[in-house]
Design a protein that fits this description.
7-stranded mixed sheet; Immunoglobulin-like; about 10% helix; mainly beta; globular; Nucleotidyltransferase, domain 5; 4-stranded antiparallel sheet; 20 strands
Length: about 300
């Protein structure tokens, strides 16, 4: 672990060190060493600041913070000090002239430690109720007390979709004080026509299907069959009834989600889901290689769950 001093400048904590130029890496994050301009006055070489006792940090709040080298999570006490938070009022949605929507989410770190990078996913509807993935973003890091704005200028909804939902850190890569404040939603008023009482009644039940990709340390399977990423598209294209099929992604070990290429894996999943028209993608945690998905949930015509055989 590294121990850093931080100075409170411009309403936020900023890392400082004892020499000019780039700072050390923490995980995959490069922290820049920051100094008051006054500390450079009368220096011929401009490479090192004047001694701190000459006053550049007078009347500044200073603190020491221990940060782990581990990527992407900060374990122990530092991990418990991160709290990335959103609420419904954090999400604003604006209609565009071409029928698409611009969505902006303001994310705040309410904790006492800086966050690492994390994912931000935009959905049409609640993903726990079959919401459709619209876009994936990478955000952060956010310093303690700081905010981050993430936006997408071109989200396109289907005619029967009226709600945009944003989930931060959907892969649960960051351990936080409070995991319950990572979702925000915004309902677009007047988008859905008023339904008659007959239309509001549940329609006939249908089967929702599931297919499963499992990632191991050095191999992967699709529906129990060992495959490569290059072979996967042809197999996905053969899946019947894809609009009613959920594309699931599992891992043999949570350590896989901590690898540098995990974001690329999530991006690939989103691309495959969109290209082949699956109902929605879903991360389902740890499962052994060879795990298969299948029909396991009956849903009504309006998309709500009715029974699980």
């Amino acid at each position: 672990n590294h121990v850093y001093n931080e100075v409170f400048l411009n309403n936020r904590w900023i890392r400082v060190d004892n020499v000019i130029n780039p700072g050390p890496f923490v995980g995959d994050k490069l922290f820049v060493r920051v100094y008051s301009l006054a500390s450079w006055n009368d220096r011929a070489d401009w490479r090192t600041p004047r001694p701190q006792e000459e006053g550049w940090n007078e009347n500044r709040d200073l603190r020491t913070l221990e940060v782990s080298d581990a990527y992407p999570k900060y374990p122990s006490s530092a991990a418990l000090a991160i709290d990335m938070a959103v609420e419904d009022t954090s999400l604003s949605v604006k209609a565009n002239a071409d029928g698409s929507f611009t969505a902006t989410i303001r994310i705040r770190n309410k904790g006492a430690a800086p966050s690492p990078e994390f994912g931000v996913h935009f959905f049409a509807g609640d993903p726990q109720k079959g919401g459709r993935l619209l876009a994936t973003h990478s955000s952060g890091p956010i310093m303690p007390g700081g905010t981050w704005g993430e936006y997408n200028p071109e989200l396109r909804l289907k005619p029967d979709e009226d709600t945009i939902v944003v989930i931060i850190d959907p892969e649960d890569r960051v351990k936080e004080l409070d995991e319950s404040n990572n979702k925000a939603s915004h309902r677009i008023e007047g988008r859905l026509p008023k339904e008659s009482s007959a239309a509001q009644k549940a329609g006939p039940a249908r089967q929702r299907h599931f297919v499963t990709i499992v990632l191991g340390e050095d191999k992967m399977t699709f529906q129990g069959q060992e495959v490569t990423w290059e072979q996967l598209p042809a197999l996905l294209e053969q899946v019947p009834d894809r609009p009613q099929t959920v594309l699931q992604l599992a891992v043999t070990s949570r350590d896989i989600e901590n690898r540098q290429d995990w974001k690329d894996t999530i991006d690939r999943l989103g691309t495959l889901h969109s290209r082949y028209g699956f109902e929605y993608p879903s991360l389902i945690g740890e499962h052994p290689l060879g795990t298969k998905g299948g029909p396991s949930e009956l849903v009504t015509s309006n998309g709500s769950a009715e029974a699980r055989p």
